TrEMBL record:
This is Arylsulfatase G. Belongs to the sulfatase family. SUPFAM superfamilies: Alkaline phosphatase-like (SSF53649). Residues 31-370 form the Sulfatase N-terminal domain. Keywords: Calcium, Disulfide bond, Glycoprotein, Hydrolase, Lysosome, Metal-binding, Signal. It catalyses: an aryl sulfate + H2O = a phenol + sulfate + H(+); Hydrolysis of the 3-sulfate groups of the N-sulfo-D-glucosamine 3-O-sulfate units of heparin. One of its GO terms (molecular function) is N-sulfoglucosamine-3-sulfatase activity. It is found in: Lysosome. The gene is Arsg. One of its GO terms (cellular component) is lysosome. Its EC number is 3.1.6.1, 3.1.6.15.
Length: 539
């Protein structure tokens, strides 16, 4: 008996049914996005990554209900360049941000660079940034001028200004001065002249910031932003850049026995992420993609207040002095924890070995939102939505690691990854807990490590070995092609000029720029539910 033929209409219906069954992760409406960026967090600070870590039950649950990426990297090993790359999908040699901005910086992320927030807002999203910015705060470099409808947070790292309760740091820093220059303490590692400001949009609402309540206030503002966006009927993009785990640490005291200050702070961060997950779930499971990662590795010179590297200890560098974490191009400087959670779309309980980067967040979210990448420029990030959905394990073939302060000219590319191989044309060690540093060393031909069997970066391949000779040509080609691609691109140049007039200050008449609180006390806490907000504009 012959096979009955199907009409074109029946074929179409059957095709749609089969596609629906085969691809349950196809996005039918614009999803919400929450990107949580931790500060100075170590790969080993996540319990799911490192069994010795016990303080992250909420993050570990997030990993169990989502996908954990174990070969995920920041785009630089220090603050401003890493954040600029997240919001542009471009390395510092392209977007112009190669090192950190100062409290006196006039510039920031170049204005001709298009941010992720600008693309998503054009696509119909409500956009909010909460937390640390550090991409320029003066004039049009403020977050409200870079695509964010709402901003609540601090303009740079929270050790870049004094507070009344300074928290824990190495070395300890004094509180803000109260009574003129005689009370000021000069210390190279501490900012004592200007109080740390807290902004809501372009208004300074507290100066100095009360560090002990900052985590709670971030969660409260996140909840309000999400509720407003939900009420508006628009999808939202929330960029939550935490103060944790950067010093100074201000955990709820006293810490539980055996946890210490760092462990208590890590637990506070974990609880904050857990609360944000609850907010996302409250919108309807499956409506929101939550992506957690870090800006760079731990700040080793802070000793017991620095994070955990896990196995990525950079043993070759340690033998020669200095740290192999933050500010370096060793794995501990840029390999960071990363989790993606999206019920019904991102597979639960999956561990992905794919080589990925914070650079990939920009193009991936743009594609998921149904938007288009900005024209006339190159991108270093990839659309990794097939990896998110578990359809693929294909990520970067080549990943570039820019110098971040420990060796070589900042921003220059002198380390790269090709498959399991890591090549260094320059090495250097940042300041370690013991005060040592590792001087920059040039390598020609490059040092090459096989990370598949030497994750500690302890023993480079013998230059005379067959393995080295086999992989060197491919590394050399990849390196040359990458540099040529950047040189031919439409690149930007950041303005790093400084002027004391750019310092955010709500009261130029008072030492340290401290604001008078509603009850007349300097540095008093501000409760948005009790006190009327007094506008204090950034000068």
């Amino acid at each position: 008996m012959g096979t009955p033929s199907l009409s074109p209409w029946a074929v179409l219906v059957l095709t749609l049914v089969l596609v629906g069954l085969w691809a349950p992760c196809v996005v039918s409406r614009q999803p919400n996005f929450i990107v949580i960026l931790a500060d100075d967090v170590g790969w080993g600070d996540l319990g799911a990554n490192w069994a010795e870590t016990k303080e992250t039950p909420h993050l570990d649950q997030l990993a169990a209900e989502g996908t954990r990426f174990v070969d995920f990297h920041s785009a630089a090993s220090t603050c401003s360049p890493s954040r600029a790359s997240l919001l542009t999908g471009r390395l510092g040699l392209r977007n112009g941000v190669t090192h950190n901005f100062a409290i006196t910086s006039l510039g920031g992320l170049p204005l001709n660079e298009t941010t992720l927030a600008e693309v998503l807002r054009e696509a119909g999203y409500s956009t909010g940034a909460i937390g640390k910015w550090h991409l320029g705060h003066h004039g049009r470099h403020h977050p409200n001028s870079r695509g964010f409808d709402f901003y609540f947070g601090i303009p740079y790292s929270h050790d870049m200004g004094c507070t009344d309760s300074p928290g824990y740091n190495v070395p300890p820093c004094p509180p803000c001065p109260r009574h003129g220059t005689a009370a000021r303490v000069v210390r190279k590692d501490c900012y004592t002249e200007v109080a740390l400001p807290l902004f809501e949009n372009t208004t300074i609402v507290q100066q100095p910031v009360e560090l002990g309540s900052l985590a709670r206030r971030y969660v409260e503002e996140a909840a309000r932003f999400i509720q407003r966006a939900s009420d508006s009927g628009h999808p939202f993009f929330l960029y939550l850049a935490l103060a944790h785990m950067h010093v100074p640490l201000s955990p709820p005291l006293p810490p539980a026995p055996g946890r210490g200050i760092y462990g208590a702070s890590l637990g506070e961060m974990d609880a904050l992420v857990g609360r944000i997950k609850e907010l996302a779930d409250s919108l309807g499971r499956g409506s929101t993609l939550l992506w957690f990662t870090g800006d760079n590795g731990p700040w080793a010179q802070k000793c017991e207040l620095a994070g955990r590297l896990g196995p990525f200890v950079g043993a070759w560098q340690r033998q020669r002095g200095g740290s192999s974490a933050k500010q370096t191009t060793w794995e501990g400087g840029h390999r960071v924890p990363a989790l993606a959670y999206w019920p019904g779309r991102v597979p639960a309980g999956r561990v992905s070995p794919t080589l990925l980067s914070v650079l990939d967040i920009f193009p991936t979210l743009v594609v998921l939102a149904g938007a288009a990448l900005p024209p006339s420029r190159g991108f270093d990030g990839l659309d990794v939505s097939p990896v998110l959905f578990g359809w693929s394990d294909v990520g970067h073939k080549v990943l570039l690691h820019p110098n971040s302060g420990a060796g070589g000219k900042v921003g220059e590319i002198e380390a790269l990854r090709l498959a399991q191989y890591k090549a260094f044309y320059t090495t250097g060690g940042a300041m370690a807990c013991d005060g040592s540093t590792g001087p920059a060393e040039r390598h020609q031909p490059p040092l090459i490590f096989n990370l598949a069997r030497d994750i500690q970066e302890q023993e480079p391949l013998d230059v005379a070995s067959r393995e080295y000779q086999a992989v060197l040509p491919a590394i050399s080609r990849a390196y040359t092609q990458a540099l040529q691609d950047i040189a031919a691109d439409n690149v930007s140049v950041a303005d790093y000029s400084q002027d004391p007039a750019a310092i955010p200050c709500c009261n130029v008449q008072h030492v340290g720029c401290q604001c008078q609180g509603a009850h007349g006390a300097l540095g008093s806490s501000w409760d948005p539910h009790v006190e009327k907000r007094t506008p204090r504009l950034c000068l």
